[in-house]
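In the current project phase, the collection of sequences with tokenised folds has grown. A sample record is quoted in full directly below:
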Amino acid sequence: MYNNLIIRLGAHRVFAVASVAAAALHAGAVLVAGFSTPDYSQSQRAISDLGIRGQPYAFLVNYLGFIVSGGFILLAVRAANKMWTPPLSPSLGLKCMACAGVFLIVAGFYPFPSWIHLTAALLSALSAAAGIAHFSVYAMKYRYSLILAISGGIVALLVLTDTATWVLAEARNIRAHAFMGLLQRIASFSAFFWFGAFAIASARQADTVGKINECGITRENPL
């Protein structure tokens, strides 16, 4: 089913749409649940707190914010693998993002405070940071936007900083600062939307190359 969809719409389009859909669903679910949950501080509390069983919008966060978003990431990676040929493919970055998607899905099926959720969320963040860092180098190498390439490194560092902050806080049962929830949202949303921006830039580049090739074929074989 997924292969037929990718072939019909074009791998580069599916890559872009799926990655943006993942970002929109994740951010939308977290923000709606956060603003709608009574006595919940988005600047101080973790995203995972919204998914605890018994919370009014746990289903929204766990399924749309984690599981469905993770599914769209896997679809985006699958499309990207069909879009690039192996020598030009950022294969390491795609593998890391696939792992991030899988771990995100696992985190959704095992809500906080399960240790499975904590481990999966941690591994998802680390995988995403590694993937984005690799894509950032790839964007620099293949002359994407300089802003996109540099911002990728910044986003990867931000995700790692946020992850280290939460690991430290959980290990020592302390709060590192008063805005841990805000930092987590900035890091998470930035990672999702940067991946979407990278996918769009890659899709545009692939579309441009495809049009150039079509023009070349037309000139060589005029009707």
